[in-house]
């Protein structure tokens, strides 16, 4: 049991590294995008920036789900990667349908993965919310400048 929990904690640390990488890439992109003028169609510009940000952050989460799926395959929990990926995605997002489950001691990994997913989506949400706040400030400043005499 202690080995499984240790393996789960190691997997969580690796996911944190993946999340940090995606977060840094997203933050660098948005820091660059923030310096660009919003142009004549600010809502479209901001939508494109948010879309890129969302895709980068979601790819970070998808890579984490895939990492857990590979771990489950290596441990022999599932016969094919698709099932491992499905289980991993359902667990990482805390949906927990229960139609696919782990057997034996490695089932202790599932709650660790769910807790990991909650934390990683929390980081993703915080970054996205920060970007929204910055963009709304920039949009308000652009509107104020446009309406000045």
From TrEMBL:
Protein name in UniProt: Potassium channel protein
InterPro entries: K_chnl_dom
Transmembrane segments: 50-72, 84-102, 108-129
Organism: Rhizobium ruizarguesonis
Residue ranges that the Swiss-Prot or TrEMBL entry lists as coiled coil: none
One Pfam family here: Ion_trans_2
UniProt entry keywords in alphabetical sequence: Ion channel, Ion transport, Membrane, Signal, Transmembrane, Transmembrane helix, Transport
Domain Potassium channel span(s) in chain numbering: 65-133
GO biological process, one term: monoatomic ion transmembrane transport
Signal peptide: 1-22
């Amino acid at each position: 049991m202690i080995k499984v929990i240790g393996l789960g904690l190691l997997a969580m640390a690796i996911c944190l590294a993946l999340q940090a990488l995606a977060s840094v890439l997203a933050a660098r992109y948005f820091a660059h995008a923030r310096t660009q003028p919003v142009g004549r169609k600010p809502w479209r510009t901001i939508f494109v920036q948010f879309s890129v940000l969302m895709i980068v952050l979601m790819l970070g989460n998808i890579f984490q789900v895939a990492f857990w799926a590979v771990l489950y395959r290596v441990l022999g929990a599932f016969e094919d990667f698709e099932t491992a990926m499905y289980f991993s995605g359902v667990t990482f997002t805390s949906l927990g349908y229960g139609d696919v489950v782990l057997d034996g001691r490695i089932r202790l990994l599932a709650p660790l993965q769910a807790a990991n997913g909650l934390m990683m989506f929390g980081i993703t949400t915080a970054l996205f919310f920060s970007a929204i706040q910055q963009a709304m400030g920039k949009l308000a400043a652009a509107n104020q400048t446009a309406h000045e005499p």
